[in-house]
Amino acid sequence: MSARATKDRMVEKAKARGDEAAIRFVLALAESLHRYGTPADRLEENLALCSARLGLSAQFFASPTSILASFETRRGVVSRMLRVAESELNLEKLVRVDRVISRLVRGEIGPDEARIGLEEVERAPDRFGPAMRVAGFAAAATLVARLFGGGAAELLLTLLTASVIGVTVHLLAASDRMRPLAVAVAAGLASASGFAFLGPVDEAAAYVVTVSSLILLMPGLKVTIAMRELAMQHLTSGTTRMMAALRTLLGMAFGVIGGRQAAAALPSPPDFLPGFELPEATLWAAVALFPIALVVDFRARWRDLPVIAAGCFSAYFAASWGRSVFGPEMGAFVGSLAVGVAGNLFARVFDRPASVLQIPGVTLLVPGSVGFRSVFQLLDHDAASGVDAAFRMVLVGTALGSGLIVANVLVPPRRAL
């Protein structure tokens, strides 16, 4: 064999090793982005961007449960399928993954270094331990109870109930066999507490406690992402995500009915709840404090608190103005449009993921409580009200997704995250 042929073969082998390293990185990136809560369209866009930067011709298909990837390499077509578990928001790690992508796209690191960077992000411990996350869960639920118009009794009972639910969900989530029961058990605890202590006096107050205690477990954000994916023609992912949201709502509804029946069978508990209304200033205090709870619940960095607060405030005040002028559905659209534009501007100016601002803002607007009410009413044999609430949930979810899409048209995002 001539020296030239030997050299050519060595070059081809080196190129093949480069393709293999690039593919390993792209697959690792796919798992990381999915794990930290990236929608299907944004996930595919990031994977395509990084593949093109590494000289790969690739196609991707993402769904909530699997990711398919096909690469055209010098040795032929390489196909891979990844089975992925349900994602969980972690804004700090999403920011760190975005930094790895940025460095790769700018050519500062290669695929091997980028993959090592992703592994370091994965191995890094969560910023907040279990106790802090339970406290954040209880704080967010209590603040939501005030936003729903609850008084002192509802807030105190929500704080106690959400604390118990937070511990229970953490313990059940540690077991693969018990994890599917976590939502139903949490709903049963919330319903039993609310209807046992407040149901005989004020059923509306019991409902406030129940919904507020479960607010962070409700799939409202999942419904919004599903509607956005459907609008972006990601039909498989959007439909799958919507069915997963419906499954969660059904589990909650069964848990609430069981908890209410258990509360009716129990003897009347002692009356220890305060019986006075709260001043209007506490409503604004709840709006101001809610971003602090979301930093913990979404596992963000404390330095991102001003950004998260900006997202929450822009969504809340824009949606409030929109509701007063155009009605509830258009109010959701105006709120999501405002937070979408603000997030894209933030990403362009500071070279950071827009999701850090957008996800907390959209959380204040999501229709999870409406969907929960619809399923609960249907199971409670109130078909007319249940269908009406379900239709409003779909309308609000569509409005939220449309607002984010229009925001991307008005202010194109820096990148898919």
Topology, please?
Elements: H1 3-35, H2 40-53, E1 57-62, E2 66-73, E3 76-83, H3 91-105, H4 111-123, H5 130-147, H6 152-173, H7 182-197, H8 203-214, H9 220-231, H10 235-265, H11 281-297, H12 305-326, H13 328-350, H14 355-363, H15 368-379, H16 383-410
Antiparallel strand pairs: 1-2, 2-3
Helix pairs in contact: 1-2, 1-4, 3-4, 5-6, 5-8, 5-11, 6-7, 6-8, 7-8, 7-10, 9-10, 9-16, 10-15, 11-12, 12-13, 12-14, 13-14, 13-16, 15-16
Main attributes?
single chain; 417 residues; mainly alpha; three-stranded antiparallel β-sheet; disordered N terminus
Principal-axes shape call: globular
Beta-strand portion reads 5-15%
Gap from first CA to last CA: 50 Å
Largest sheet: 3 strands, antiparallel
Structural class: mainly alpha
Average pLDDT, to the nearest integer?
81
Going across the biggest sheet, name each strand in turn: 1-2-3
* SS field, number of helical segments: 16
Radius of gyration: 24 Å
Order of helices and strands: HHEEEHHHHHHHHHHHHHH
What is the number of beta strands? 3
State the share of residues found in helices, binned by percent: over 70%
- Low confidence ranges: 3-14
Commentary on this structure:
The chain is built from 16 helices and three strands. It is mostly helical and 417 residues long. It has a three-stranded antiparallel sheet, with helices on one face. Helix 6 (152-173) runs parallel beside helix 8, helix 10 (235-265) packs across helix 15 (368-379) and helix 12 (305-326) packs antiparallel against helix 13 (328-350). The radius of gyration is 24 Å and the shape is globular. The N and C termini lie far apart (50 Å).
